[in-house]
């Protein structure tokens, strides 16, 4: 009888810990669409760390989930931080006039010379030459098929839910790095 009592308490404690982690520390998301390919694919299940940015700053190239509007959350890669100048020239991404390495895009870049990311500057698409304070500039990895800051502009830093920490489904694609 005592064994069942301890087992019951252990199960209840485990359930409470799981609810605490799920509610306050991590959130689960499903990737919807192809905008983050080849890094993330439609249907991938993600674990998002909701508290990581309470202790650290958002970094360039972090993969984040943010509230796009009241009902939709998007997953994108942070490209521009406040004060950054962003531009694409000759199919290469530049941040503050320095070329940004994007090896995670190599699988999608066409070998036939076609442009993967059309040229742009922030001033041309957002009307300002730099990312404003409290804002971020985000892009999907699949630059040809992504609704991102090139279309909807900057996002508020406050809209960030958290950093994508783990891809846990499908099991064949489990991963913790997205660079």
Automatic annotation (TrEMBL):
The keyword Membrane applies. It is an enzyme of class 3 (hydrolase). The chain crosses the membrane at residues 6-31. Keywords: Hydrolase, Membrane, Protease, Transmembrane, Transmembrane helix. Pfam families: Peptidase_S26 (PF10502). Its main location: membrane. It is a single-pass type II membrane protein. It catalyses: Cleavage of hydrophobic, N-terminal signal or leader sequences from secreted and periplasmic proteins. Gene3D superfamilies: Umud Fragment, subunit A. Residues 7-169 form the Peptidase S26 domain. Its EC number is 3.4.21.89. It is found in: Cell membrane; Membrane. Belongs to the peptidase S26 family. This is Signal peptidase I. It comes from Salimicrobium humidisoli. The lineage of its organism: Bacteria, Bacillati, Bacillota, Bacilli, Bacillales.
